[in-house]
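Good morning C.,

I know you're traveling, so I'll keep this short. The sequence:
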Amino acid sequence: MGRDNRDADYMMNLCDMALGETGLREHRFDWLLGDPGTSGRRAKLPVDAYWPGHQLVVEYRELQHDQPVPHFDKPDKLTISGVHRGEQRALYDARRDTDIPAHGLRLVAIRPADLNANNQGRLTSRNPESDLEVVRKLLARASDEDRVTDHFRCWLLAQGWTPVPPTDEHTDIEAVRGDERLIGEIKGKNKEKGAAVDIGYGQLLRRMTSESPSIRYALAVPPSLVWHAHRVPAHIRRLLRIELYEVAHDGQVREIPA
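The C-alpha coordinates, ready to paste straight into the viewer:
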Protein backbone atom coordinates (compact mmCIF):
# COMPACT_ATOMS: atom_id res chain seq x y z
CA MET A 1 0.00 0.00 0.00
CA GLY A 2 2.98 2.32 0.44
CA ARG A 3 1.86 4.20 3.56
CA ASP A 4 1.87 3.30 7.25
CA ASN A 5 -0.42 0.71 8.80
CA ARG A 6 -3.29 2.88 10.06
CA ASP A 7 -6.78 1.84 9.04
CA ALA A 8 -7.44 5.34 7.71
CA ASP A 9 -4.39 5.18 5.44
CA TYR A 10 -5.40 1.74 4.20
CA MET A 11 -8.86 3.08 3.37
CA MET A 12 -7.55 6.17 1.54
CA ASN A 13 -5.19 3.99 -0.52
CA LEU A 14 -8.16 1.87 -1.56
CA CYS A 15 -9.94 5.07 -2.60
CA ASP A 16 -6.89 6.04 -4.69
CA MET A 17 -7.13 2.74 -6.55
CA ALA A 18 -10.90 2.99 -7.02
CA LEU A 19 -10.67 6.54 -8.37
CA GLY A 20 -7.51 6.26 -10.46
CA GLU A 21 -6.16 9.39 -8.81
CA THR A 22 -3.98 10.01 -5.75
CA GLY A 23 -5.87 12.04 -3.20
CA LEU A 24 -4.41 14.95 -1.26
CA ARG A 25 -4.09 13.71 2.32
CA GLU A 26 -5.05 15.96 5.24
CA HIS A 27 -6.06 18.65 2.78
CA ARG A 28 -7.18 22.04 4.12
CA PHE A 29 -9.56 24.38 2.31
CA ASP A 30 -9.45 28.11 2.95
CA TRP A 31 -13.18 28.14 3.70
CA LEU A 32 -13.40 25.15 6.08
CA LEU A 33 -12.53 26.69 9.44
CA GLY A 34 -12.59 25.77 13.10
CA ASP A 35 -13.86 27.98 15.91
CA PRO A 36 -11.78 31.07 16.82
CA GLY A 37 -9.16 30.68 19.54
CA THR A 38 -8.22 33.24 22.21
CA SER A 39 -6.38 35.27 19.55
CA GLY A 40 -9.43 35.24 17.30
CA ARG A 41 -7.62 33.16 14.71
CA ARG A 42 -9.57 30.31 13.08
CA ALA A 43 -7.52 27.30 11.99
CA LYS A 44 -8.29 25.48 8.75
CA LEU A 45 -9.92 22.11 9.40
CA PRO A 46 -8.33 19.15 7.59
CA VAL A 47 -10.22 16.55 5.60
CA ASP A 48 -8.86 13.02 5.36
CA ALA A 49 -8.37 13.20 1.60
CA TYR A 50 -9.43 15.27 -1.40
CA TRP A 51 -9.41 14.16 -5.05
CA PRO A 52 -9.44 17.36 -7.17
CA GLY A 53 -10.09 15.52 -10.43
CA HIS A 54 -13.24 14.01 -8.98
CA GLN A 55 -14.20 17.01 -6.83
CA LEU A 56 -14.55 14.46 -4.03
CA VAL A 57 -13.74 14.49 -0.32
CA VAL A 58 -13.62 11.25 1.69
CA GLU A 59 -13.69 11.14 5.46
CA TYR A 60 -12.88 7.91 7.33
CA ARG A 61 -14.93 8.26 10.50
CA GLU A 62 -13.74 5.86 13.14
CA LEU A 63 -15.70 4.82 16.20
CA GLN A 64 -15.08 8.06 18.16
CA HIS A 65 -16.96 10.02 15.50
CA ASP A 66 -20.22 8.20 16.28
CA GLN A 67 -20.12 7.33 19.98
CA PRO A 68 -18.39 8.50 23.18
CA VAL A 69 -14.83 7.23 23.59
CA PRO A 70 -13.25 8.73 26.77
CA HIS A 71 -9.70 8.15 25.51
CA PHE A 72 -10.34 10.44 22.55
CA ASP A 73 -12.99 12.74 23.99
CA LYS A 74 -11.03 14.01 27.03
CA PRO A 75 -14.33 14.90 28.82
CA ASP A 76 -12.52 16.77 31.63
CA LYS A 77 -10.76 19.19 29.27
CA LEU A 78 -12.48 21.94 27.28
CA THR A 79 -11.46 22.99 23.79
CA ILE A 80 -11.55 26.46 22.21
CA SER A 81 -15.17 25.68 21.27
CA GLY A 82 -16.10 25.63 24.97
CA VAL A 83 -16.92 21.91 24.89
CA HIS A 84 -14.87 18.75 25.32
CA ARG A 85 -13.11 17.17 22.37
CA GLY A 86 -15.87 14.64 21.61
CA GLU A 87 -18.49 17.37 21.31
CA GLN A 88 -16.14 19.51 19.26
CA ARG A 89 -15.48 16.57 16.92
CA ALA A 90 -19.22 16.19 16.32
CA LEU A 91 -19.51 19.95 15.77
CA TYR A 92 -16.70 19.96 13.20
CA ASP A 93 -18.03 16.84 11.44
CA ALA A 94 -21.39 18.59 11.06
CA ARG A 95 -19.56 21.62 9.66
CA ARG A 96 -17.80 19.44 7.09
CA ASP A 97 -21.13 17.80 6.19
CA THR A 98 -22.63 21.21 5.48
CA ASP A 99 -19.76 23.29 4.09
CA ILE A 100 -18.18 20.76 1.72
CA PRO A 101 -21.32 20.18 -0.42
CA ALA A 102 -22.08 23.91 -0.19
CA HIS A 103 -18.81 24.52 -2.07
CA GLY A 104 -19.74 22.17 -4.90
CA LEU A 105 -17.79 19.13 -3.70
CA ARG A 106 -19.09 15.63 -3.01
CA LEU A 107 -18.49 14.23 0.47
CA VAL A 108 -18.44 10.50 1.24
CA ALA A 109 -18.05 9.32 4.83
CA ILE A 110 -16.76 5.75 5.25
CA ARG A 111 -16.94 3.93 8.59
CA PRO A 112 -15.20 0.81 9.94
CA ALA A 113 -18.51 -1.07 9.93
CA ASP A 114 -18.57 -0.75 6.13
CA LEU A 115 -15.76 -3.33 6.09
CA ASN A 116 -14.73 -6.03 8.58
CA ALA A 117 -14.27 -4.27 11.94
CA ASN A 118 -14.34 -5.39 15.56
CA ASN A 119 -16.16 -3.77 18.50
CA GLN A 120 -13.31 -1.29 18.89
CA GLY A 121 -13.74 -0.13 15.31
CA ARG A 122 -10.48 -1.66 14.09
CA LEU A 123 -10.33 -3.55 10.82
CA THR A 124 -9.89 -7.20 11.77
CA SER A 125 -8.89 -8.42 8.33
CA ARG A 126 -7.64 -6.75 5.19
CA ASN A 127 -8.32 -8.23 1.80
CA PRO A 128 -7.40 -5.51 -0.70
CA GLU A 129 -9.22 -7.19 -3.56
CA SER A 130 -12.60 -7.63 -1.85
CA ASP A 131 -12.22 -4.42 0.18
CA LEU A 132 -11.61 -2.49 -3.05
CA GLU A 133 -14.95 -3.69 -4.43
CA VAL A 134 -16.69 -2.49 -1.26
CA VAL A 135 -15.01 0.91 -1.54
CA ARG A 136 -16.00 1.21 -5.20
CA LYS A 137 -19.64 0.65 -4.22
CA LEU A 138 -19.37 3.19 -1.39
CA LEU A 139 -17.97 5.80 -3.77
CA ALA A 140 -20.44 5.04 -6.56
CA ARG A 141 -23.24 7.49 -7.18
CA ALA A 142 -26.90 6.72 -7.67
CA SER A 143 -27.64 7.70 -11.26
CA ASP A 144 -26.20 5.99 -14.33
CA GLU A 145 -25.15 9.35 -15.74
CA ASP A 146 -23.08 9.96 -12.61
CA ARG A 147 -21.55 6.49 -13.02
CA VAL A 148 -20.60 7.18 -16.64
CA THR A 149 -19.17 10.56 -15.61
CA ASP A 150 -17.01 9.05 -12.86
CA HIS A 151 -15.65 6.27 -15.11
CA PHE A 152 -14.96 8.70 -17.95
CA ARG A 153 -13.17 11.06 -15.53
CA CYS A 154 -10.97 8.17 -14.32
CA TRP A 155 -10.14 7.32 -17.92
CA LEU A 156 -9.23 10.92 -18.72
CA LEU A 157 -6.89 11.03 -15.72
CA ALA A 158 -5.19 7.83 -16.90
CA GLN A 159 -4.72 9.43 -20.34
CA GLY A 160 -2.92 12.43 -18.86
CA TRP A 161 -5.86 14.84 -18.80
CA THR A 162 -6.53 17.10 -15.82
CA PRO A 163 -10.23 17.75 -15.11
CA VAL A 164 -10.93 21.43 -14.50
CA PRO A 165 -14.01 23.46 -13.55
CA PRO A 166 -16.06 23.85 -16.75
CA THR A 167 -16.06 27.20 -18.52
CA ASP A 168 -19.83 26.80 -18.85
CA GLU A 169 -21.38 25.67 -15.58
CA HIS A 170 -23.81 23.41 -17.46
CA THR A 171 -21.01 21.38 -19.10
CA ASP A 172 -20.75 17.87 -17.65
CA ILE A 173 -16.96 17.58 -17.77
CA GLU A 174 -14.02 19.63 -18.98
CA ALA A 175 -10.32 18.75 -18.94
CA VAL A 176 -6.97 20.06 -20.17
CA ARG A 177 -3.80 18.37 -21.39
CA GLY A 178 -1.00 20.67 -22.45
CA ASP A 179 -2.50 23.09 -24.97
CA GLU A 180 -5.54 20.87 -25.56
CA ARG A 181 -8.95 21.33 -23.99
CA LEU A 182 -11.71 18.73 -23.98
CA ILE A 183 -15.35 19.63 -23.44
CA GLY A 184 -17.60 16.68 -22.76
CA GLU A 185 -21.26 15.81 -22.39
CA ILE A 186 -22.35 12.66 -20.59
CA LYS A 187 -25.50 10.59 -20.99
CA GLY A 188 -26.59 7.60 -18.92
CA LYS A 189 -29.21 4.91 -19.39
CA ASN A 190 -32.45 6.52 -20.47
CA LYS A 191 -35.88 5.31 -21.61
CA GLU A 192 -35.83 7.94 -24.36
CA LYS A 193 -32.51 6.78 -25.79
CA GLY A 194 -32.61 8.64 -29.09
CA ALA A 195 -33.79 11.88 -27.50
CA ALA A 196 -31.10 11.68 -24.80
CA VAL A 197 -28.33 11.34 -27.39
CA ASP A 198 -29.79 14.11 -29.57
CA ILE A 199 -29.83 16.38 -26.53
CA GLY A 200 -26.18 15.50 -25.87
CA TYR A 201 -25.16 16.48 -29.40
CA GLY A 202 -27.19 19.68 -29.12
CA GLN A 203 -25.51 20.57 -25.85
CA LEU A 204 -22.09 20.12 -27.48
CA LEU A 205 -23.10 22.38 -30.37
CA ARG A 206 -23.97 25.12 -27.89
CA ARG A 207 -20.50 24.76 -26.32
CA MET A 208 -18.76 25.45 -29.63
CA THR A 209 -18.17 29.12 -28.96
CA SER A 210 -14.47 29.08 -29.93
CA GLU A 211 -12.81 28.40 -33.28
CA SER A 212 -9.59 27.20 -31.61
CA PRO A 213 -8.43 23.89 -33.17
CA SER A 214 -7.00 22.87 -29.78
CA ILE A 215 -10.52 22.37 -28.39
CA ARG A 216 -12.01 18.89 -28.71
CA TYR A 217 -15.51 17.73 -27.88
CA ALA A 218 -16.64 14.41 -26.47
CA LEU A 219 -19.89 12.56 -26.01
CA ALA A 220 -19.64 9.68 -23.53
CA VAL A 221 -22.48 7.16 -23.34
CA PRO A 222 -23.20 3.66 -22.00
CA PRO A 223 -23.38 0.72 -24.46
CA SER A 224 -27.17 0.99 -24.71
CA LEU A 225 -26.89 4.44 -26.35
CA VAL A 226 -24.04 3.75 -28.77
CA TRP A 227 -26.33 2.78 -31.70
CA HIS A 228 -28.28 6.02 -31.28
CA ALA A 229 -25.06 8.05 -31.11
CA HIS A 230 -24.01 6.51 -34.46
CA ARG A 231 -27.00 8.16 -36.15
CA VAL A 232 -24.88 11.31 -36.50
CA PRO A 233 -22.62 10.25 -39.40
CA ALA A 234 -18.93 9.82 -38.75
CA HIS A 235 -17.87 12.47 -41.26
CA ILE A 236 -20.06 15.04 -39.46
CA ARG A 237 -18.52 14.11 -36.12
CA ARG A 238 -15.06 14.55 -37.65
CA LEU A 239 -15.94 17.98 -39.04
CA LEU A 240 -17.25 19.08 -35.62
CA ARG A 241 -14.32 17.46 -33.74
CA ILE A 242 -16.76 15.41 -31.67
CA GLU A 243 -15.29 12.19 -30.30
CA LEU A 244 -17.63 9.38 -29.24
CA TYR A 245 -16.86 7.19 -26.23
CA GLU A 246 -18.54 4.04 -24.95
CA VAL A 247 -18.35 3.64 -21.16
CA ALA A 248 -19.11 0.08 -20.06
CA HIS A 249 -20.66 -0.81 -16.71
CA ASP A 250 -17.30 -2.18 -15.46
CA GLY A 251 -15.65 1.19 -16.14
CA GLN A 252 -13.90 0.27 -19.38
CA VAL A 253 -13.83 3.19 -21.83
CA ARG A 254 -13.57 2.70 -25.59
CA GLU A 255 -13.25 5.46 -28.14
CA ILE A 256 -15.46 4.67 -31.11
CA PRO A 257 -13.56 5.53 -34.31
CA ALA A 258 -15.18 8.11 -36.56
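Safe travels,
E.
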